């Protein structure tokens, strides 16, 4: 069975975008990406407030799983519960979707940069801070994505066996 993997974070502009990009091999796992590589990934530091709550398909991984990003402000549990409730209501297995909180891997520097860039519109000041913060905690994102990919493989295997 193919899964829908949703990386979610506060604004869907930095941590979820980086995690999804690593997952889809848009960013490397074996080294810290350059500033240009980070800036070139889809959605990086571009999500608008009006887009919060909207999942965006970023791509399909090598196993056919759809990979999304989602901004949800401080409502992580509420959004996760809502998605699971809607799935249950429509008789879909909660194992068809994998919700991943990418915000837990973020550094405070990226949070400050994101607030400046997305929150206050100070892109020239905030964006370089987001990139610096992402690069400093990049290994955390690679670890997260590796765990998600292992979990997705297990879920897909379990779902195909049932």
Short description, anyone?
This protein is of the alpha/beta class and 162 residues long.
Shape: globular
Element string (H = helix, E = strand): EHHEEHEHHH
Radius of gyration: 16 Å
Overall number of structural domains: 1
Structural class: alpha/beta
Q: What can be said about the biggest beta sheet? A: 4 strands, mixed
- The fraction of residues assigned to DSSP E strands is 5-15%
Count of helical stretches = 6
Low-confidence stretches: none
What is the number of strand segments?
4
Average of pLDDT: 91
Compute the separation of the termini in Å.
10 Å
Strands in their spatial order, largest beta sheet: 2-3-1-4
Percent in helix: 40-55%
Describe this structure in words.
The protein is 48% helix and 14% strand. The chain is of the alpha/beta class and 162 residues long. The protein has one domain. The chain has a four-stranded mixed beta sheet, covered by helices on one side. Strand 2 and strand 3 form a beta hairpin. The radius of gyration is 16 Å and the shape is globular.
Compile the SSE list and pairings.
Blueprint: E1 4-9, H1 15-23, H2 35-39, E2 56-60, E3 66-71, H3 76-89, E4 97-101, H4 108-119, H5 123-136, H6 138-161
Parallel strand pairs: 1-3, 1-4
Antiparallel strand pairs: 2-3
Helix pairs in contact: 1-6, 4-5
């Amino acid at each position: 069975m193919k899964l829908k993997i949703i990386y979610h974070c506060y604004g869907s502009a930095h941590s979820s975008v980086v995690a999804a990009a690593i997952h889809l091999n848009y960013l490397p796992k074996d080294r810290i990406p350059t500033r240009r590589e980070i800036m070139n990934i889809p959605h990086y530091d571009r999500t608008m407030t009006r887009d919060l709550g909207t999942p965006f398909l970023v791509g399909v991984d090598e196993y056919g799983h759809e990979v999304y990003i989602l901004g949800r402000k401080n409502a992580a549990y509420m959004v996760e519960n809502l998605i699971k409730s809607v799935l249950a209501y429509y008789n879909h297995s909660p194992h068809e979707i994998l919700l991943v909180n990418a915000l837990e891997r973020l550094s405070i520097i990226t949070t400050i940069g994101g607030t400046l860039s997305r929150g206050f519109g100070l892109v020239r000041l905030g964006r370089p801070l987001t990139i610096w913060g992402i690069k400093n905690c990049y290994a955390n994102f690679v670890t997260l994505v590796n765990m998600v990919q292992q979990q997705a493989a297990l879920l897909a295997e379990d779902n195909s066996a049932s």
